[in-house]
Design brief:
alpha/beta, Rossmann fold, nine-stranded mixed β-sheet, 7 helices, 9 strands, globular
């Protein structure tokens, strides 16, 4: 049975529905719980791929969070070895930074439910082809990055031009969250309550729209994550 290494930065940001996609391909997840002090592996060894989850820290805060530098080294190793890599939110920022893009603070934080649109390149992308050209995604980020050199743009929003990209054939960065469940959203709202208060966002607005926006978002995620799991299974 193959496995993927999952770098987890905070308790409330897990694989979510990505777990289902992996399980359907008999792929297990080995969590590295950085928030508990576990160390980033130096080598991927027999892992088929790498997943980097979200978190409240910034890529540019490597002095405060030294493990971020170790993560980037592991990402570079995955890219060099051609192993499927998936970065979610902070994970996409780390992947972009490993590819040479500068991660900076955006004009304002994009938190909650906002529509995204697929690029023309997404129509032929192995993961996004056939997906509806517009859908409402769940967001929680304040940092942004330009499209890394050599990468293919896949998704954008009104506020953030680069919401998703592909590098090579097997590496993907998603700034927005498609992996969330209702439970994970409620956990994030509770865990980051002070951040919501800081930017004057009503948590009730986020939770209140779960039933409307989450089911169609999870359908998109089922397709995209299932296809990414296919890449792992082919190794």
């Amino acid at each position: 049975m193959s496995k993927v290494i999952v770098l987890q930065h905070v308790k409330c940001e897990t694989l979510g529905t990505i777990t289902d996609a992996l399980a359907s391909h008999c792929i297990t997840a080995q969590y590295i719980r950085l928030f508990l002090g576990e160390e980033v592996p130096r080598h991927l060894m027999d892992a088929s791929g790498l997943v980097i989850m979200g978190g409240p820290m910034g890529v540019y805060e490597r002095k405060a969070y030294p493990f971020l530098s170790d993560e980037m080294k592991l990402i570079e190793q995955a890219l060099h070895q051609g192993k499927p890599t998936l970065g979610i939110c902070l994970g996409s920022q780390l992947l972009a930074a490993a590819l040479g893009a500068e991660v900076v603070k955006g004009k304002r934080k994009e938190i909650g439910w906002y529509p995204v649109s697929l690029t023309k390149e997404a129509a032929t992308d192995p993961l996004f082809k056939g997906v509806a050209p517009y859908f409402t995604a769940y967001h929680w980020h304040g940092d942004i990055f330009p499209l890394p050199s050599g990468a293919v743009p896949l998704v954008s929003s009104t506020l953030t031009e680069c919401q998703a990209f592909r590098y090579g054939e097997k590496s993907y960065g998603l700034l927005f969250h498609m992996e969330v469940t209702e439970g994970l959203i409620r956990e994030m709202v509770g865990t980051f309550a002070s951040e919501l208060e800081e930017v004057s966002i009503d948590p009730g607005e986020i939770v209140g729209k779960i039933k409307e926006y989450l089911p169609p978002l999870q359908e998109v995620g089922k397709t995209v994550f299932g296809r990414w799991a296919d890449l792992l299974a082919r190794r």
